[in-house]
Amino acid sequence: MNIASPIQKRSLGHTACPHDCPSTCALEVDLTEDGRIGRVRGAKDNSYTAGVICAKVARYSERLYHPDRLLTPKRRAGAKGAGQWQEIAWDDALDEIANAFIKAEQVYGSEAVWPYFYAGTMGQVQRDSIERLRHAKKYSGFFGSICTNLAWTGYVLGTGTLRGPDPREMALSDCVVIWGTNAVATQVNVMTHAVAAKKNRGAKIVVIDIYDNPTMKQADMALILRPGTDAALACATMHIAFRDGTADRAYMAKFADDPAGLEAHLKDKTPEWAAKITGLSVDEIEAFAKLVGETKKSYFRLGYGFTRSRNGAVSMHAALSLATVLGSWQYEGGGAFHSNSDIFKFNKSELMGTAYVDSDIRMLDQSQIGRVLTGDAEALRHGGPVMAMLIQNTNPVNVAPEQRLVKQGFLRDDLFVAVHEHFMTETAELADIVLPATMFVEHDDIYRGGGQSHILLGPKLVEPPSTVRTNLFVIEELAKRLGVADHAGFGLSEREHIDRMMAASGKPDFAFFETEKWLDCQPPFEEAHYLNGFAHPDGKFRFKPDWEGTPAPNKPPAVLGSFGPVAQLPVFPDQVDLIEVADAEHPFRLATSPARNFLNSTFAETKTSRDKEGRPEVMINPADAERLMIAQGDVVQIGNGRGALRIHARVTDAVKPGVLVAEGLWPNKAHLDGEGINVLTGADAPAPHGGAAFHDNKVWLRVATA
């Protein structure tokens, strides 16, 4: 197969941002005469991107032409993590990887190999082709739990599917509620449309989050909750709606399963009850309820913050239920939206090799990689050890929870690891073979926007360095060496994969997108707003979710069962303390929120992003700082049962007493002791379908001793 398809010379290229952000921005890229990229802009003629992109992607050339970019394959020449490498030819590197996989399989069985990936690129071909190799070879399965499960589950158990009102309708709203996302930092296009509503219609913007962040600065009403208490606010707001007559009883009678049962359940969920739980005042809760209750065109934009707490599925469902109690779905510019992921309906069976799936092969939880690699029997599903890995599109030594276990696992002398990457990440530093990867403007791929409604083409715009290779190339070459290259789905180029996937999905081909750039798949108004009924068999919204029985996105295989304390999940929306509740030994709640200039661990390698973020710090409320005799810039220590680390203090009233926020994700080595914030985060699987609760940690805090 060809390593890369030829490109046409042009001065302006059109593509899509490949990163793990719901915006999936349509991009315009200046192309220089010498075959390099210049300025990157948002596409003005894409109605969602509307010409606006985040600053970190706008300066993408800094990343593409970074002097530290990996350009040649490398073999480890010393101890793991010692930083000793020798260059190796591509064929030799691929031979060594294949031989390691074969050896592991011969001794321990095929499940000893665990291909591991995630969302470093959201391109369908470059991200998901690794699954085809996994299934063809019967390697251990991959349960991708780290990002979406809790929020997706809570939303779908209410609506029956993962879609909602057109995100562009925010511009037509009279009240935009941005709940559980720091959109200015992580989904800038949400603000494009929300601010348009404010400017053109006088709409109010409400922001609900756990600290005073840049999105809060745009708010007409800013509500700062204690972490993990979103459901209490939602329940009290619904209580007030029933109490004051702003609940739409006629709408609920037609479209909801048990409004009378919900109303009875909410009788004691008063503002006073919620104030004690959330840290908000009764007046704040009443004001919020009055605003959304009297504003029919209220658009609830529900973010991925819900996925970062152990009770996130319950909190998402409760916030979502508020739109149903108010009947907001009926109006243009109203309703509740989290993701449009279900509208695209890609048929990826050939791309991912689903015909080769063997239900007897174990499924390992991505979030529990530390436990898997250190031999935890439950995490291994009581099977044999993982002995060999190929890692693409992710950096688990930095981003995965229980970081000490993760690093301990990667340091095993008997574990073979190959990493295909752009930079020498902290995961690559612990590998045996490191392969250099293309970036998104150097290969063909196709994308879809979870936070919007477009399928977008990402064609190759510039030639890659001659020594780097695509993800697809690596998968294809390993397939040849591992004896599965003759299986259906292998031997195809990126463009062929795209054409075949799109044809199987009833959608246009690559040539269409070369001309049109994108395809808008937003469903009709009635479907998007569920005016023909919700997507459950009876057409009713579920105030009473079936937490275990209802189909849900990324639900674990039946053989794994449900995860976490499912018996404690509520019958109706309610506040449930499945979170790590602060206690006498751990009086603080720590959230590891995203920084504006990083995207997970991506962009932490670029100087501009690092300079803008400064250094790793933890935000501490002034009252807590005074009590503990902590001054601005002091080195403090944070810890819990998983470990402890030192970090600089930022004393600020952006956080409430008892709450700590450490924005990142900084590389581990950027911290004072070389250990990052995920030393403190847990990998226990939340109910009902797993996840990773990065913002849900009880910790102690004190001034660091020398």
TrEMBL record:
Alphabetically ordered keywords of this record: Iron, Iron-sulfur, Metal-binding
SMART domains assigned to the protein according to its UniProt record, in alphabetical order: Molybdop_Fe4S4 (SM00926)
InterPro entries: Asp_de-COase-like_dom_sf, MoPterin_dinucl-bd_dom, Mopterin_OxRdtase, Mopterin_OxRdtase_4Fe-4S_dom, Prok_Mopterin_Oxidored, YoaE_C
Domain of life assignment: Bacteria
One Pfam entry name: Molybdopterin
Family: Belongs to the prokaryotic molybdopterin-containing oxidoreductase family.
Species annotation: Rhizobium oryziradicis
MF terms in GO: iron-sulfur cluster binding; metal ion binding; molybdopterin cofactor binding; oxidoreductase activity
Protein name (database record): Dehydrogenase
Occurrences of domain 4Fe-4S Mo/W bis-MGD-type (ranges): 10-68
